[in-house]
UniProtKB/TrEMBL annotation, chain A:
Subcellular location, record wording: Cell membrane
Organism: Companilactobacillus mishanensis
Official protein name in the record: ATP-binding cassette domain-containing protein
Record key words, sorted: ATP-binding, Nucleotide-binding, Peptide transport, Protein transport, Transport
GO molecular function: ATP binding
Length: 308, 350
């Protein structure tokens, strides 16, 4: 992506620890730094427990970061107080789409009230007519029938519910959306529908996405740049094509070698690369730009090799 | 090849408050000795219900109005509960999707693995535990002797699924039914579990029915594939026939809607529009017709029969009728056809 642009999101040395000082302390996110540029889709991949969801949740301030900075349009939001006016504005600008379309919609609320909750909180509509008009517009945007606005979530399929979740996120005119595994609970035939919808909306509204997922082929398809997380750290970050064609980190290589491909001949010849944690992590490693736009978690000597 | 399982015209209904749901609407298939049959389809298509009816693990509101499930020629549907108890976990075993909920959290894992032996055979506790240890080693649990006393929560998700597999294979079942065994796992762990199943099949000669919605996994593990939609099989054939010479528009749609790592920045993914039908009132014609851009008038009127593509390959679509017009499949499918031609002529498909 265009480097001369100012990043919309800058994450600097973010740490998110849990149970600090106790024997079961968890370093879920351990010193992570990256930028996200306006209009791009930034993919974050990794296995369960790698810290990818926690990173997303820290950025949107569902957690209070242990240390580090999160800049949104240049402003540090990592220490904003809940309910402060700046926080309220920030909550409008950044929205989230959750993984589980069953658990993330309140079963006792009608679809119209789920979608309008943000409108009401931020006072974005003046009266009921305007509210209803906006709800219908949002439902149309995600290709749902506006007449179904008085229904309850259980009356919708998984794919339709995910569309409701997307409409809710769009209601407050956000600039940046974090989508945390938005399609992994959906069937194959429905996944493509939702991905296409997300891309259409991105184009129409000029949105920036952070797309968190473990389905590597879908991430590659939707993302401009991709960061690979492992054990709370970003081990590699590059353009989507670059990371798939020239993975540098042993963990990335192992992850890519495990993707099942819907082609029996490819599967017959596939060689899985095992990853040995103890071999590849030492002290004094950091995330460094070893090739233009290609970042690798390594020590200085390794980085120097690439630079020559 | 011997048919060890032969399912004929299976129908399964569920009584609900809203009426009768016809979840399985006439399914025929067989399982050959030593092979892996994959059943693919989306949630609600009836793939889990099909295999659960083999072991009669269906909910109380279910009913099987028609059909036969012949195991070595014996109809399992005619067996009493007691007779089924002797088959479940001994001759036919099942691996469930979620390794978090299919183990007993209050029982050490060694005991859980040994349990089928103690139930089905007159063996001493010592013999059973020795065998459990051996099987845990076989599925790749490090240091099994010490770890047998541990409880499920002390293991990772991948290890738990290995333990579930150990329970399933401890009695060398003839048939292993794996219902989405890797869906809850990470890709790297998934790859390990699939390798493990293949290795076990070679060692103990089990036949496997593998249920999944992931076509990538199918390509890696299956000998034959059956595609299921709305309670029926719509296409089945060898793994090469389904992946390189698919004939049913639903199979086309499934294969075409997945981005592969080679999918470039085309504008849109090809998706299958709409959603599956409600099986409370199954449509009169082809259930896939409303979502099928290749549908013809007859699809609305009459369900297509199976048309023969080869000795091993059948598809239920009117497009294969001799009078049907020629259609052009999606581009990615045409590429697969090219590979099929190359394969048939014995060349490499690279």
């Amino acid at each position: 992506m265009a480097d001369e642009k100012t990043p919309i999101v800058q994450v600097k040395h973010l740490k998110q620890y849990f149970n600090i000082g106790k024997p079961n302390e968890v370093k879920a996110v351990d010193d992570v730094t990256f930028d996200i540029y306006p209009g791009e889709t930034f993919g974050l991949v990794g296995e369960s427990g790698s810290g990818k969801s926690t990173t997303g949740r820290s950025i949107i301030r569902l957690y209070n970061p242990t240390s580090g900075q999160i800049l949104f349009k240049g402003q540090d939001i990592s220490k904003l107080k809940n309910r402060s006016p700046k926080m309220k504005q920030f909550r409008r600008d950044m929205q989230m789409i959750f993984q589980d379309p069953y658990a993330s919609l309140n079963p006792r609320m009608k679809v119209k009230d789920i979608i309008a909750e943000g409108l009401d909180i931020h006072g974005l509509v003046k009266n009921d007519d305007e509210r209803e008009k906006r709800i219908k517009e949002l439902l149309g945007m995600v290709h749902l029938n506006p007449e179904h606005m008085t229904r309850y979530p259980y009356e919708f399929s998984g794919g339709q519910r995910q569309r409701i979740g997307i409409a809710r996120a769009l209601a407050v005119d956000p600039q940046f959306i974090i989508a945390d595994e938005p399609i992994s609970a959906l069937d194959v035939s429905i996944q493509a529908q939702v991905v296409n919808l997300l891309q259409d909306i991105q184009k129409q509204q000029g949105l920036t996405y952070m797309f968190i997922a473990h389905d590597l082929s879908m991430v590659k398809y939707i993302s401009d740049r991709i960061a690979v997380m492992y054990h709370g750290k970003i081990v590699e970050l590059a353009d989507a094509d670059e990371i798939y064609s020239h993975p540098l980190h042993a963990y990335t290589q192992s992850l890519l070698s495990a993707i099942p491909v819907p082609d029996p001949e490819v599967e017959k010849t596939r060689k899985r690369i095992d990853f040995d944690h103890s071999k590849h992590f030492t002290d004094n490693q950091t995330l460094q730009e070893v090739l233009p736009g290609h970042f690798l978690y390594c020590d200085d000597a390794t980085a120097a090799k690439f630079k020559n | 090849m011997e048919k060890i399982l032969d399912v004929k015209n299976l129908h399964v209904n569920f009584a609900t408050y809203n009426g009768t749901v016809q979840a399985i609407r006439g399914v025929d298939f067989h399982l050959n000795s030593g092979e892996t049959l994959a059943i693919v389809g989306e949630s609600g298509s009836g793939k889990s219900i099909t295999v659960r009816s083999i072991l009669q693990l269906l909910a109380k509101n279910s009913d099987i109005p028609e059909g036969q499930i012949l195991y070595h020629g014996d109809d399992l549907l005619q067996k009493s509960d007691k007779e089924m108890d002797a088959i479940r976990g001994d001759k036919i075993a099942m691996i469930f999707q979620d390794p978090m909920t299919s183990l007993d959290p209050t029982m050490p894992i060694g005991k859980q693995v040994a349990e089928p032996l103690l139930i089905h055979h007159k063996v001493s506790k010592k013999e059973a535990m020795d065998r459990a240890e051996e099987v845990l080693r076989l599925v790749g649990i490090p240091n099994p002797k010490a770890r047998m006393k541990d409880y499920p929560h002390q293991f990772s998700g991948g290890q738990r699924q290995r333990i579930v597999i150990a329970i399933a294979i401890v009695d060398y079942p003839e048939i292993l039914i794996a219902d989405e065994p890797t869906t809850a796992l990470d890709v790297t762990v998934q790859a390990q579990i699939i390798d493990l199943l293949k290795e076990l099949q070679e060692k103990i000669g089990t036949s496997i029915i593998f249920i999944t919605h992931d076509l990538g996994v199918v390509a890696g593990i299956a000998d034959r594939v059956a595609v299921m939609y709305a309670g029926k099989f719509v296409e089945y054939g060898t793994v090469d026939e389904i992946f390189y010479n698919p004939q049913h528009p639903y199979t086309w749609g499934l294969l075409d809607s997945m981005p592969t790592l080679d999918t470039s920045e085309q504008d849109h993914l090809n998706s299958i529009p709409g959603t599956p039908p409600n099986l409370l009132n199954p449509p009169k014609g082809d259930a896939f017709a409303p979502r099928n851009s290749y549908a013809m008038e007859i699809d609305e009127e009459e369900q297509p029969p199976f048309f023969k593509v080869s000795k091993t390959h059948y598809a239920a679509t009117w497009l294969l009728h001799p009078d049907a017009p020629k259609v052009t499949p999606p581009e990615s499918i045409q590429k697969r056809f090219e590979k099929f031609q190359a394969l048939k002529s014995g060349g490499s498909v690279k």
